[in-house]
Amino acid sequence: MSTEARDNFVIAPQKTPSLPIVGSSQRFPINRIFCIGRNYAAHAVEMGHDPSKEPPFFFFKHAGAVSPSGEFPYPSETTDVHYEAELVVALHKGGANIAPEAALDHIWGYGVGIDMTRRDLQAVAKEQGRPWEVAKSFDNSAPCSALIPVTAIGHPQRGRISLAVNGEIKQDGNLDQMIWKTPDIIAILSQYFELFPGDMIMTGTPSGVGPVQRGDTMIAEIEGLGALTVAVK
């Protein structure tokens, strides 16, 4: 943004959140982060739900929640923070009412992410029928790897997705276990929201979610995309 453009604001605008790109000095600017809930059947069951009876549902994380630093500061107002390893989808093209067969054309690249969740605050929100933002959209709640462009990786449809804590495997699933596949997620989201370049989607997590403590090290890995190592501080 030019100096002249910045001068038109009454306060200085915040820097655009972004992620690094594998093999490039350029960065991917983040607009919004959409998340789909309970998109792996085994995870839905472990959270006490019947996936055969649920339509897809979504929630948000704010763009600044992305943390590419490799560190996760343990958040305030909670004593039960959980990890959820996820495939991250980054869009370079937007639109509304996108057809599933056209959805993959909107994807710029992919990454490995962890949806960090204040599980105790989420439980209270569910019980009281309140929104999930304080449990899901807090600062640093979306650690994410550098992104890999589609031109280099293609479109992952299957492959192991796992998360280890201090070397012990906690989550171990496969991308082909997603109930709603990536094209379906994009198509359904675009019925509710006009999507824009820079939007990202976290596509759900397999079973095995659980808590972390200060001093723990998480390693989330997706076959073909690499690993994301995050230290809990």
From TrEMBL:
Gene3D superfamilies: Fumarylacetoacetase-like, C-terminal domain. Residues 33-232 form the Fumarylacetoacetase-like C-terminal domain. SUPFAM superfamilies: FAH. Keywords: Hydrolase, Metal-binding. One of its GO terms (molecular function) is metal ion binding. The keyword Coiled coil does not apply. Pfam families: FAA_hydrolase. The keyword Metal-binding applies. PANTHER family: ACYLPYRUVASE, FLUTATHIONE S-TRANSFERASE. This is Fumarylacetoacetate hydrolase family protein. It comes from Devosia litorisediminis.
